[in-house]
């Protein structure tokens, strides 16, 4: 495993029409690491992803990508004309990889092989997210960039999706950079959390971030009563439904934190 960062941001800022979208971003993403970006609406989370993958150029500062960095990107939303006849298989060939064996293998990996002949417009939210994940995997990435991958997915589906991402990371050894608002799930399997509000409010391990004053200002108090930040100790096995297998302790390990009222930065 190389020690060269896949992506590094150095004091990067982005402005558009004289509006500051992001400022002073410093970030290092290494091989095999999972980084989750959290923050309130309008914090610039999607903009940060696009800045890091090169879709936006920084107004100041620097974004560098390693030569060996191969990115598989999963967007937050996908708009497809309902009148356009498009099967999942055909949709995936439009990713640039027309290898049918590779397409079938990617669908198997994400648990969506049964959808290959389905019209993409008929898929449920969870099914569509799995197909989009398969499309990202067809690029043979060593970095998966996922913009709210569980959006439009019910609670049960969210749990399964995050478990799937963990398995993909372990199998492929790829890094994952993810935006999410599902705090009660993402904290469990994340190496580093970045709390964003147009600038990096705080960053570090889930435990350290969940106790940081700026995190608590954004997510504490009333919201904190409903969201448990839990850290995961793998001394048990999960079933596909998210429950814990018989014979092991069946209690999530949670740490709830309360803080001050919401604040702006």
Provide an overview of this structure:
28% of the residues lie in helices and 21% in strands. The protein has helices spanning 45-52, 88-93, 100-109, 125-137, 155-172, 183-186, 206-209, 213-219, 221-224, and strands at 7-16, 19-29, 34-38, 60-65, 71-74, 143-147, 175-179, 192-196, 200-204. It has 9 helices and 9 strands. It has 265 residues and is of the alpha/beta class. The longest helix has 18 residues, at 155-172. Residues 221-265 have low confidence and may be disordered. α3 crosses α4.
Mean pLDDT: 81
Given this structure, which CATH class of the largest domain is correct? Alpha Beta
Q: Which strand order do you get reading across the main beta sheet?
A: 5-6-7-3-8-9
Strand content: 15-25%
- Provide the domain count: 2
Which class best fits the helix and strand makeup? alpha/beta
What is the second-level CATH architecture of the largest domain?
A: 3-Layer(aba) Sandwich
CATH topology (level 3) name of the largest domain: Rossmann fold
Distance between the termini: 37 Å
Helix count equals 9
Work out the number of β strands. Answer: 9
The share of residues in helices is 25-40%
Describe the structure concisely for a colleague.
With 265 residues, this protein is an alpha/beta fold. It has 9 helices and 9 strands. The radius of gyration is 19 Å and the shape is globular.
Could you give the topology of this structure?
Blueprint: E1 7-16, E2 19-29, E3 34-38, H1 45-52, E4 60-65, E5 71-74, H2 88-93, H3 100-109, H4 125-137, E6 143-147, H5 155-172, E7 175-179, H6 183-186, E8 192-196, E9 200-204, H7 206-209, H8 213-219, H9 221-224
Helix pairs in contact: 3-4
């Amino acid at each position: 495993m190389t020690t060269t960062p896949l992506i590094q941001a150095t004091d990067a800022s982005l402005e558009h029409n004289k509006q500051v979208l992001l400022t002073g971003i410093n970030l290092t993403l290494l091989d095999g690491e999972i980084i989750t970006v959290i923050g309130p609406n309008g914090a610039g989370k999607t903009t940060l992803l696009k800045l890091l993958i090169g879709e936006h150029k920084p107004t100041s500062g620097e974004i560098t990508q390693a030569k060996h960095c191969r990115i598989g990107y999963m967007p937050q939303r996908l708009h497809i004309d309902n009148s356009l006849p498009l099967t999942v298989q055909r949709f995936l060939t439009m990713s640039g990889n027309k290898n049918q064996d590779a397409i079938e293998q990617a669908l198997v990996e994400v648990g969506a092989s049964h959808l290959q002949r389905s019209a993409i417009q008929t898929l449920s939210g969870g099914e569509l997210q799995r197909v989009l994940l398969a499309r990202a995997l067809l690029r043979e990435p060593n970095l998966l960039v996922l913009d709210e991958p569980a959006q439009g997915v019910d609670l049960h589906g969210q749990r399964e999706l995050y478990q799937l991402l963990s398995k993909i990371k372990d199998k492929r050894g790829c890094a994952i950079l993810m935006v999410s608002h599902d705090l009660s799930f993402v904290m469990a399997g994340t190496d580093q959390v970045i709390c964003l509000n147009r600038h990096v409010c705080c960053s570090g391990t889930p435990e350290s971030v969940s106790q940081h004053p700026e995190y608590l200002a954004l997510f504490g108090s009333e919201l904190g009563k409903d969201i448990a930040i839990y850290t995961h100790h793998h001394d048990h096995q999960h079933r596909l439904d998210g429950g814990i297998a018989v014979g092991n302790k069946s209690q999530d390990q949670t740490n709830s934190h309360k803080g001050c009222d919401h604040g702006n930065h």
